[in-house]
Design a protein that fits this description.
The complex is a heterodimer of chains A (427) and B (358).
Chain A (H helix, E strand, L loop, with lengths): L1 H18 L3 E7 L6 H22 L7 E7 L4 H12 L11 H14 L3 E2 L17 E2 L5 H15 L8 E7 L2 H4 L2 H11 L2 E7 L7 H10 L3 E5 L3 H12 L7 E3 L6 H4 L10 E4 L8 H11 L14 H24 L6 H9 L2 E2 L1 H6 L9 E2 L12 E6 L4 E4 L8 H19 L7
Chain B lengths: L12 H4 L6 H21 L2 H27 L7 H18 L5 H20 L7 H21 L12 E2 L4 E2 L2 E2 L7 H23 L2 H11 L1 H6 L4 H28 L1 E2 L1 H4 L2 H14 L4 H25 L4 H22 L3 H15 L5
Antiparallel strand pairs in B: 1-4, 2-3
Helix pairs in contact in B: 2-7, 3-7, 3-10, 3-12, 3-13, 4-5, 4-6, 4-10, 5-10, 8-10, 12-13, 12-15, 13-14, 13-15
The chains are: A alpha/beta (427), B mainly alpha (358).
């Protein structure tokens, strides 16, 4: 331990000295590989918001932000390399945008004392901050997503989906398997029949899965897909003439890249989302003025206003707000990772603040606490209009069924705490 | 001049048939060992270990294992990823079922379990050869990955199907889990690699290795001179899988800490290790190290050069990495089809004569 502390201190001195003036936000992005279609817009949104803060506000609390981008290719080995390469540079918060990398980084970030924000992905039970002290997944997680899908089906059917058949098409990985447990609980509660249809990485070949769907004739299909798998699934659904309004994806299966390849056939496809869609917000005028016109847009600059760009923007906004909160709590502008963690835990997002940021009604109002790192778990349903080529919300932001999710979170996090002998973080 | 055997007198058979009969070679070997065991642990930090040394050491073990099967015994295998998965899941089940037993035994036992599975999938090699055997081992790859995804018992019924390595210690030092120190994980893997390399080297130059090579060169002729193909082929599969299983166990427990089978042990892994031994040199222990170093270190080096030093955008750098490594592989294979090991051999020949051309 002594050696470790000494090396950490030495490393911190060596690495942090030249960059002390900046707030470092690493961005473990993936702009290459089979998941690049999802990785690029998110990384662009994240980067553009940081650029906007520097250009418009002079950083956060007077300290400039610095984005450290590292290409993971959605690959866990490269993710480890990226984490180790950036953690010595004063990284404040990690957002790996990959459930696989998240699982690896949960113990590592806890040991290194750096917070990690896995917004809408990662390990769902990390919502229990009493066990997962350095992992945050506000404002919503997979199990909220699963519940929101079922809630939408309930509202379509007047509150009764007994005997309906629902198929889950999922990426056969940790990410895709996450919602199964919740959906099973919900199926027991509401009496619908659940069938599980896995698709192996990367998901370019799904003929047999959709043949199975055609044979089983489920009433609804829900999807936990990512990258190229989404567009293939929507195309296949169109091929078997599955009614698109009965096909509901999670938020990672609801971007423009997923529906555009299928053309008009994708009209009516739905996806749940925990933030608003489109570019009709004042913040986009600022981005146009300070980022795009200054020639500083990240990537090709063609993703602004897409669903995943908005998510990257939203993630960056939450990180920046948490950093500002940390500066307020600790009374210093030069915060470190430990202070950042306190800031994330004390984060409060109100509608007034969202309006001030130019993002009215963009996401929910919520307050993070030591016990609850998961946020409110609210979400809405968006539907794709193939002629206008836009997503639009067809429901309000509603609650998910916490009476089902909370016991599951408690059980899973308790198992993790026992396995790793973790003490209670909140006392 | 620098590199010569003249004046290096041997007075016993043992001295004559040792691994490094040339004095210069032997001292170089001792020096490398000393440097790796005594100097490196003092110099490295988390980045060096997790991004460079651990993958290099672990892939070296896997490459040695595959080289025994493909390079020495001539049985082409595309099941390396699947066998690594067996090692990883065996290690996980052992670690969680018998937490009181030392992790070192779990790693070795995981190798043992993989050896049994390897023998099972090696049985078709008695009837089929060459490309057809490659396809049969490909079936092992897909079957094993499917199995570990399908049967929840292997991942202890966790919700996501991920397996996580709990903390385990050796002499009070954590070697798995989050609270590890750079030098501890490095030394743990290095000790196992040294153990594997010494065993592999001595197996391949002993009678078993000669039988493997006889089978590789011409199996009918080998059978006629008295080599039992059943024993030779299956022992090659067993020994090879033992090493690959150890590599898989270390890959999961020490290096990554959490894996999901479809991502970590996919067909890509099988190809990666196969490329390592082809680039490094088939039928050479040194070649396994060289190939692993080439394919593990070069991407990291290029990334740091292109992004860190030249400041390129990360996506452009990632695309160029593929381009450069691909071009280098083709260049190497055209210049020296027998791999980096052969380059090294040629260099040694040249050094022996230097500075006189004849």
């Amino acid at each position: 331990m002594k050696i470790k502390l000494a090396t950490m201190a030495l490393g911190a001195v060596m690495a942090a000295a030249p960059v002390m003036a900046d707030l470092v936000f690493p961005s473990l992005s993936y702009r290459t590989g089979p998941y690049a279609a999802g990785g690029i817009p998110f990384a662009d949104g994240y980067a553009d918001y940081m650029t906007l803060l520097n250009a418009r506000d002079g950083g956060i609390g007077g300290v400039m932000t610095k984005l450290l981008e590292c290409e993971t290719g959605y690959n866990t080995e490269k993710g480890v390399e990226c984490y180790e390469a950036t953690k010595g540079e004063g990284a404040l918060v990690y957002q790996p945008l990959s459930t696989g990398i998240t699982y690896q980084l949960i113990p590592k970030t806890m040991a290194d004392g750096i917070p990690m924000h896995t917004m809408g992905y990662g390990r769902t039970s990390a919502a229990n901050g009493d066990v997962f002290s350095h992992t945050f997944n506000y404002p919503a997680n997979y199990w909220n997503g699963a519940s929101l899908v079922v809630n939408h089906l309930l509202s379509l059917n007047g509150g009764d989906i007994k005997g309906k058949k629902i198929a889950l098409v999922y990426h056969n990985s940790a990410y895709g398997k996450e919602p199964i447990r919740t959906l099973e609980e919900l199926s027991a509660k509401h009496g619908f029949e659940l069938s599980l249809i896995p698709v192996d990485h990367p998901g370019q070949e799904q003929k047999s899965q959709w043949l199975q769907i055609r044979r089983e004739r489920p009433d609804y299909v829900t999807m936990w897909g990512w990258g190229v798998m989404n567009q293939v699934a929507i195309q296949e659904a169109a091929n078997i003439r599955f009614p698109m309004e009965n096909f509901i994806g999670v938020w990672w299966s609801g971007s423009e890249n997923d529906v555009l390849p299928a053309g008009d056939a994708a009209n009516g496809y739905k996806a749940v989302t925990f933030h608003n869609v489109g570019d009709d917000f004042p913040v986009f005028d600022d981005i146009q003025k300070y980022v795009v016109e200054a020639g500083n847009a990240a990537g090709a600059g063609d993703q602004i206003g897409t669903a995943l760009y908005n998510r990257g923007l939203y993630a960056a906004m939450l990180a920046a707000e948490a950093a500002a909160t940390a500066q307020k709590i600790h009374g210093t502008a030069d915060i470190n990772a430990a202070m950042m963690r306190d800031g994330m835990e004390a984060l409060e997002i109100t509608e007034e603040r969202m309006v001030a940021l130019g993002m009215p009604n963009f996401g929910p109002s919520f307050k993070v606490s030591c016990e609850n790192h998961g946020g409110p778990g609210t979400g809405a349903v968006a539907q794709w209009d193939a002629t206008a080529k836009t997503w639009s919300l067809i429901s309000d932001f509603g609650d998910s069924d916490m009476s089902v999710i909370e016991p599951l979170v408690a059980a899973d996090s308790a198992a993790y705490a026992a396995e790793n002998k973790l003490p209670s973080a909140c006392k | 001049m620098f590199y010569r055997e003249a004046g290096d007198y041997k007075t016993s058979y043992a001295a004559d048939s040792q691994t490094f009969p040339i004095k210069f070679d032997r001292y170089r070997y001792y020096f490398v060992l000393l440097f790796a065991f005594a100097a490196v642990p003092l110099l490295i930090n988390d980045y060096w270990v997790n991004a460079i040394f651990l993958p290099f050491l672990i892939y070296s073990i896997a490459a040695i294992g595959l080289n025994i099967l493909v390079g020495y015994c001539g049985q082409v295998s595309l099941g390396t990823g699947g066998f690594m998965a067996v090692g990883a899941y065996a290690c996980y089940k052992l670690m969680t079922s018998f937490p009181e037993v030392n992790i070192l035994f779990h790693v070795l036992l995981a190798g043992g379990v993989t050896a049994c599975v390897g023998v099972l999938f090696g049985l078709p090699s008695l009837r089929i050869k060459g490309f057809y055997l490659a396809v049969a081992t490909l079936a092992a790859q897909f079957f094993l990955v499917w199995l570990f995804n399908r049967v929840p018992w292997f991942y202890n019924y966790s919700a996501s199907g991920q397996i996580n390595a709990p903390e385990r210690t050796i002499f009070g030092q954590a070697v798995t889990g989050a609270q590890t120190q750079a030098w501890a994980t490095y030394l743990f893997c290095l000790v196992i690699l040294a153990f594997c390399a010494v065993i592999a080297r001595n197996l391949t130059r002993g009678s078993i290795g000669r039988k493997w090579m006889a089978i590789r060169d011409m199996d009918i002729a080998a059978e006629i001179i008295g080599v039992d193909p059943l024993k030779a082929k299956l022992s090659a599969f067993a020994v090879s899988s033992f090493f690959i299983g150890i590599a898989g166990a270390l890959f999961f427990a020490v290096y990554l800490g959490a894996v999901e089978v479809g991502e970590a042990f996919s067909i890509q892994k099988s190809f990666l290790v196969l490329f390592m031994i082809i680039i490094g040199g088939l039928g050479s222990i040194f070649g396994s190290f060289a190939g692993a170093a080439f394919l593990v270190l070069l991407p990291v080096l290029l990334k740091n050069l292109l992004v860190g030093v030249l400041g390129w955008p990360t996506d452009l750098a990632a695309h160029f990495e593929f381009l450069i490594i691909g071009a280098l592989i083709i260049t190497f294979l055209i210049a020296e089809p027998h791999g980096l090991a052969q380059l090294w051999r040629v260099a040694k020949e040249k050094l022996r004569l230097w500075p006189f051309p004849h």
